Amino acid sequence: MKVGNYELKEVKKYTWELAQDSGMNVPGVIFGNKAIMDHLIADVKEGKEWNALRQVRNVATLPGLVKASFAMPDIHPGYGFPIGGVGAFDTETGVIIMGGIGYDVNCGVRTMTTPLTKKDILKKQKEIADELFKTIPAGLGSTGKLHLTEKEIDQVLKNGAEFAIKKGFGRKEDLEFIEENGKLKGADPKAVSHLAKKRQFKQIGTLGSGNHYLEIQIVDEIYDKKIAKIYGLKKGQAVVSLHCGSRALGHQVGMDYTKILAEATRKYKIKIPDKELVCAPFKSPEGQQYYSAVAAAINAAFANREALGHLVRQAFKKVFNVKEKDIKLMYDIAHNTAKIETHKVNGKMKKLIVHRKGATRAFGPGRQEVPKKYRAVGQPVLIGGTMGTSSYILHGTQTGMDLSFGSAAHGAGRILSRREATRRFRGESVVNALSRKGIMIRGHGWKGIAEEAPGAYKDVDVVINVLHETGLAKKVARVKPLVVIKG
C-alpha cells in the first residue's frame, strides 16, 4: 500500500512494515489494527507535517539502530520521536537521542493492591476522594512535604526510591517491585544543572499536572486467574494506581541537553532528518554525560512515586483504618527512558541502549530483571486508559522479547491535542458526565480536566487487544476507576 512517500505492508495480523527507503538503515514496524492505521494514514494524506509515520521513518535513519524503528499501538506524534516509539541502538555504534526520551523523564505507573473491595470504597467514596485530594500535592508547580537541600537532591538523583524510604516516605519491601529496584545505575548528579535541581527542591512527592493522575480502581475483569493470583489480584478488589514522573527536574534536563546534543550532532556530523532528533554518539563524552543526567532524572521519578505511595497509604489508613503494610506495591514501571539492556540480536546477546518514548518495558519470563515472585510468568505491564473508561494489567511474554526488545504500549494514546480537547470539551461537563457513571473526580483546574477528557484518547480496549493478539503482552486484568485525582 502506497501512502504518500511511504510503502506500508501488513506482514502479519496487526503488524505493519514501513518499507526501508534509501535514507533508512532499518525498516519501520508499527503494531496496529485498521482503526489505528487509518488514523496514521489520514494524517499523511491530509498533508500534516507533524505525523507519526514520518517520525517512525526518521528514527530509522539514525546510526546504530538495531532491527527496526518500532511503534506501539498507542502511537501518535511526539517531539521528533513518536510517542509509542521504541528504538534500540548498539552501544558501540549508536546514538542517544533527547527526543527518544522526552521531557517527562521516567513518567511511569505505580499500582498498589489493597484488602478493600468496591463496596468498601463506595461507603466512603467522597471521604477518601477528599482525603487524597488534600494529601496528594497536585497541579502545576505543586510542592510536597519533602523540602530538600541541593546536597539531598544529589542523593535523590543517585539513590532514587531508596532515598525516599530512608526519609520515612515508603517501605523497604517496595524496592523489589520497582523497575530497576528503584535506582538506575550510572546516574551522576554532576551531569544535572543547578537550575534543574533547584526546580526539584520541593517537588518530591507531588503528582504534577497534564496527564498525571491518581486513581482508586476496581478489578472488574480477570483474564488469567493463575497470573492474577501471583500478582495479588482478584475480582472486585480495590487497587490504587498513580501516573507521574520526574517533574520539573526531568523537564529541565531535556531543556539543557537539547542545546548540548544539537552541538554534538554538528560536531560528530550526524545527519538527522528533523532538528528535534538531536543526538550524540552514545560512547561520546556528550552521550555519556546525557545518559548520566537521564539516569539521575529516572531516579528522581522513582523517589517521587515512592513518596506518593507513602501518602496514599497514610490516606487509606486515616479513612479506612487499613494498616500501611497491607497496601502492597504490586509494581512500579517506567516509560520515557533510555536504558542499557542486553538482548538477542541475530542469535547473539548484544548490549543496547533502548529508548522507550511513551512505551513501557514488558519483560517476559526468566529475565533476571523481573522480581523473583513474578519471574516465571513475566513482569506486570501497567497500561493506563482514561479516567472514564478502563486501565489494564498485562504480563510480559517471550514473544514480546523477540518482537520488540520486551516493549509494549504505555497508555491509550491521544487522538486530540490538548488544545483541540479544550476546544471540544468543558471540564465541568466532563466531571458531571463521569459522576453519572459513578466516577468521582477531584481536579485542580477545569482546563486540565478538559485536556484529559476520555474523548481525547484512543479506545484503550483496541490498544490492549493489539498488544494481546500480537503477543507483545498478554491480558491479566482490567480495572475501572471510582475516584480520580487530577493535577
Question: Could you explain how this protein is built, in words?
Answer:
The chain has 487 residues and is an alpha+beta fold. The protein has a domain at 2-100. The protein is built from 15 helices and 18 strands. It has helices at 34-45, 52-59, 118-123, 125-135, 150-159, 161-166, 194-198, 225-231, 247-267, 285-320, 398-404, 418-424, 427-436, 446-451, 460-470, and strands at 2-3, 6-12, 15-18, 28-31, 69-76, 83-90, 95-97, 107-117, 213-222, 237-244, 279-281, 328-345, 348-361, 380-383, 391-396, 407-409, 440-442, 473-486. The strands form 2 sheets. The protein has a 16-stranded mixed β-sheet that branches. It has a two-stranded antiparallel ribbon with strand order 7-11. Strand 12 (328-345) and strand 13 form a beta hairpin. Helix 5 packs across helix 10 (285-320). The chain is globular. The N and C termini lie far apart (43 Å). The mean pLDDT is 93.
Mean pLDDT: 93
Strand element count: 18
Strand content: 25-35%
Stretches where pLDDT is under 50 for at least 5 consecutive residues are none
Categorize the overall geometry. globular
Q: End-to-end span in angstroms?
A: 43 Å
Give the radius of gyration: 21 Å
Overall SS class: alpha+beta
Task: List the total number of helices.
Answer: 15
**Helix share bin:** 25-40%
Oligomer: single chain
Largest sheet: 16 strands, mixed
